Amino acid sequence: MDVDELYGLPLERFTPERNALARELRKSGERERAAEVAALRKPSVAAWAVNQLVRTQRRGLGELFDAGTALRAAHDAVLAGRGDGSSLRAAVEAERVAAEALAGAARGLLTSDGHELSPTILERVSDTLHAAALDDEAREQVREGRLERELRHVGLGMMAAASGAAPAPAPKKRAEERRADEERAAARVVEREARRRLERAERAATVASERRDRAAAALSEAEAELVDAEAERDEAEAGLREAERALGD
Q1: What's the gap between Cα 9 and its chain centre?
Q2: Where do the H-state alpha helices sit in the chain?
Q3: Per the domain annotation, does 21 fall within a domain?
Q4: Is the domain of 115 the same as that of 12?
């Protein structure tokens, strides 16, 4: 067992296997490495799911990274006055499709108690995939397959600063107007992506609310059954006492 293998294990096995590996390293005299292994944090469920995708969906992950690189290039081209809104929209759609394909694969994963990943967890998986597509540092973290916590999606509006792209000078009014049109097109793309994320979050909230309502109904039913059972018990106890008195008489 090595560190890479730890992050590929079922989530419930991470902690015991990590501790066993740390003990083995201490026994062999590698105390510094043992301390490093013992300090490894158990991944969150979303991070664990992404780690599994890295190990099982390499082709899809490569397609996501390629789509993210193309999207950043299209976005930088628009900001520099060389691109157009249609190319940017196509690049956004390609990145979205690649990320959703991977998120769809994550739906087949099960938690340690055998349940499917919740909509909230899948949303965090999706955010992490978008972050890996659009940000170099996030991409390297995901590529290693050792995530401990999910990552946040870097929006297109923040990408210009991250990529270092500077707007091209526009000395003429016509060029300024063209640039403004392209920036509005980019803003519309960002707005649509934000709206999709909001819709997914609202669906997740609806599912959670329905689950809460079902749980509340089940609790109410259980409480009613408890009241009936206690009443039946009290009645049985009273009957027993009466029978005991009759025997005594």
Answers
A1: 18
A2: 3-6, 14-27, 31-38, 45-56, 58-79, 85-106, 119-134, 136-144, 156-163, 173-248
A3: yes
A4: no
Per-residue tokens: 202: 């609202």
Give the position of tokens 């792209």: 165
Instruction: Please check whether residue 219 lies inside any domain of the structure.
Output: no
| 89 and 124 co-located in one domain | yes
Residue linked to tokens 């000078």: 169
The answer to which of 26-40, 132-146, 151-165 has the lowest mean pLDDT is 151-165
In this structure, the answer to whether residues 104 and 137 fall within a common structural domain is: yes
Under 8 Å between Cβ of 46 and 11: no
CA distance 236 to 140: 68
- DSSP category for residue 113: T
User: pLDDT at position 204, please?
Assistant: 77
**Do 52 and 109 lie in a common domain?**
yes
* Exposed/middle/buried for residue 5 (C-beta within 10 Å: 0-12, 13-18, 19+): exposed
Tell me: do 22 and 121 sit in the same domain: no
128/99 Cα distance (integer angstroms):
9
Domain that holds residue 19: 3-38
Question: Which tokens in the block code for residue 44?
Answer: 């969150």
pTM of this structure: 0.63
> At 102, is the secondary structure helix, strand, or coil?
helix
- Could you give the percent of the chain with pLDDT greater than 70? 81
Taking 80 as the threshold, does the pLDDT of residue 135 lie above it?
yes
| 227 within a domain of the structure (yes/no) | no
Supply the mean pLDDT for the chain: 82
Residues 88/111, Cβ–Cβ less than 8 Å: no
Would the pLDDT of 21 be above 80? Answer: yes
Residue 36 amino acid letter? E
- For residues 55 and 17, membership in a common domain is answered with no
